[in-house]
């Protein structure tokens, strides 16, 4: 029923095979999956590995324990959480694909922020922008403040899913962001460009111009990708 799993592959492979069987209808919503002992034998791995795989699927809402009865497939098991392989995401090609995705997200976030921002949001955005300069002036790379700046704009949309999606994508771009920030710190012209790009986004949001805000955000991420290539990340 299952393919034997090499010991070094461990729980991720087991979890994926279980998910595949659930999607194929082998284990329907509400049905009970085999015991740890049976799964351990079927996969050819230890019960500890099986337990880790099941724990992961519990956390993702795919499986649910029932006291004294076993582990069951939840009613919403077919709703799959979005996952990106961290090792794959660190490859140059994947990084630029993720930047393409972020460009689309950031543009829409800036547009919605221009429509929905409050005066309190504008103050927070101004403070977040100033924090980048302060962090760089103190000799840091500004990555933390840069991430906080973009998150503050996302908060101004009033849409929590924009915030979650941005945070999800950004976590895979931390290394690339650090490379570009370091490169920008060495190049005064790059540093000035980034500052001007950020200011353009903020100005459009302040004016309540969603089209200008989207264009400014889109151009900023496009330029970030260009600067990353110029830094030799390709």
UniProtKB/TrEMBL annotation:
GO terms for molecular function: DNA binding; DNA-binding transcription factor activity. Keywords: DNA-binding, Transcription, Transcription regulation. SMART domains: FCD, HTH_GNTR. Gene3D superfamilies: GntR ligand-binding domain-like, Winged helix-like DNA-binding domain superfamily/Winged helix DNA-binding domain. PROSITE patterns: HTH_GNTR. Residues 8-76 form the HTH gntR-type domain. Pfam families: FCD, GntR. PANTHER family: GNTR FAMILY REGULATORY PROTEIN (PTHR43537:SF44), TRANSCRIPTIONAL REGULATOR, GNTR FAMILY (PTHR43537). This is DNA-binding transcriptional regulator, FadR family.
